Amino acid sequence: MFINRKLFVLQGLHDYEEFVQLRTLCCICRLCEQDLLEKPAIYELLNDIIPFLAHPNEYLRMATLNILSTLDAKFNVADILCKVMPVVEPYIKERLIRLQNKFVVTASLRPYIPRPIWNYVVNISSVKSLLNFIADKQIYIALDGNSDSMFSTSKKYQPISAQLESCLKHLENLGLDHNIEDKLVRFENIITKMIHFRTSLDAANLNPNLGIIDLLETDVKLHVFDLTSDPKTACVK
């Protein structure tokens, strides 16, 4: 039962429509309030929930804060500090001990991903390559000790396709920086599954026979009942 709930929840979080994601986050909050999700399941879901703290949609951010507030009320301090806080810390500017006060957490949040950048990223076909390149770039920057470092050289001369280079230039014009790149990388799992969901949906819509059952091709005997005649004399053909 808990496995089925988790699978349905993940499907909602990975949906392409933000309204569906919002309802899913609200559903998770209710499940947590009523203790219908076990701790291990919640811990596994955190990596798909917490990135919404950086989503451009304010309602999604607030729904995520509601979940954190509920978990803070349900979990003990050790659970919050050891399991929840390590996932939350990349999204806040100050180190917090508790998450129950939504106003304090809101004031501590780092800037979210700008809407123009988000819309561009989730609508390009090469999103996987883009996010992989950004993730590699983040690693090179983290390992770069000085200008003579081998990682610095690799970072500078790493080959990329013309399409990917065009995408990066466009994102830079939209205001992409190191902090936004970090948030996009943390969203990678969700974004790629959103794209996969949309692609699957578009492919299904291209099938004109989807949802149509041709009775002539089935082993079904058709019957005709005459409703215009006298019921006593009417018969089934």
TrEMBL record:
Superkingdom of source: Eukaryota
Keywords for the protein's UniProt record, in alphabetical order: Kinase, Repeat, Serine/threonine-protein kinase, Transferase
SUPFAM superfamilies linked to this entry: ARM repeat
MF terms (GO), sorted A to Z: protein serine/threonine kinase activity
Record-level GO cellular component terms: late endosome; nucleus-vacuole junction; phosphatidylinositol 3-kinase complex, class III, type I; phosphatidylinositol 3-kinase complex, class III, type II
Gene3D superfamilies according to UniProt: Leucine-rich Repeat Variant (1.25.10.10)
Domain Phosphatase 2A Regulatory Subunit A helical: 9-122
GO biological process, one term: protein targeting to vacuole
Protein name as it appears in the record: Adaptin_N domain-containing protein
